[in-house]
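[Q] Does anyone have a clean structure-token version of this?
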Amino acid sequence: MSYDPPPPHRYPPPDSSPSYDTYPWVPRQESEPAGRPPRRHASLGHHSDLRVLRGAYRWQRRVATLTALGYFVLFLLLSAFAPSLMTSTVTDGLPTGLLLALIQVPVTWVAIALYEQTARRRVDPIADRIRKQAALDAKRGAR
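[A] Here you go.
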């Protein structure tokens, strides 16, 4: 004996759930409103500039993070595996380990400067272009 599902009804019965016609995971086909013309431009959410912006921002974070953390990990590795180097003196009474620890502060400033420079050079122009495109899309949608 085979089971044939009932044919889909154009209008659901009055006491049925909203998922009568489709399963919950199947998206409903929405029709365009009658008064609005079809879009000629892709919406901002599908724009490839967003992917480019995410990539530029990801690269920016990596550069700044690897600058600061890379130096700190180098300092830790030298402390753990080269104690004779870290205890040797650079000048009268100033050990190499203390000098390298004090250099950590300027390295952090360099990481912050790199973060700001890459933001101005790579991320901000893309974000400005997306912002202008969004303003144009909003003007088109208001008409």
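[Q] Thanks! Anything notable?
[A] The radius of gyration is 30 Å.
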